[in-house]
Amino acid sequence: MANSKSAKKRIRVAEQRRARNRPYRSAARTFVKKAELAIRAGDQTVAATAVGDAISMLDRVAGKGIIHKNNAARRKSRLMAKFNKLGHTAAA
Question: Residue 32 class from Cβ within 10 Å (0-12 exposed, 13-18 middle, 19+ buried)?
């Protein structure tokens, strides 16, 4: 347990920030999961919409500083790689 007054305040502030950021982080994960499910289902139009929504949410969350910009970029890159692979399998 914290002893100093400033350490106790840090605990309070960190908890407030965690509570404020949690819904955004959760929503970002949900959008990515929906996009991956749409890609696995194979419907390209639904997947394109879902991927667009997921990328938009990741950008929003990164812009607020909830996740690091490189983390968002990595997630978007992986999602687009999966989506692009869907396009190649549909064409073949």
Answer: buried
